[in-house]
Amino acid sequence: MEPLVQAAAGMVFHAPGFVQQASRLCHEYGVHLIADEIAVGFGRTGTFFAHEQAGIRPDFLCLSKGITGGFLPLSVVMTTHDVFDAFYDDQLDRGFLHSHSYTGNPLACRAALTVLDIFRDEKVLESNQVKQEQWRPLFESLSGLSVVRNLRQRGMIWAFDVVTERSDFSMAFHRAALDEGLLLRPIGRTVYFMPPYVINEDEFRFMIDKVHVLLSGTLPS
Question: Which domains does the chain have, with CATH numbers?
Answer without folding.
Answer: 5-122 (3.40.640.10), 127-216 (3.90.1150.10)
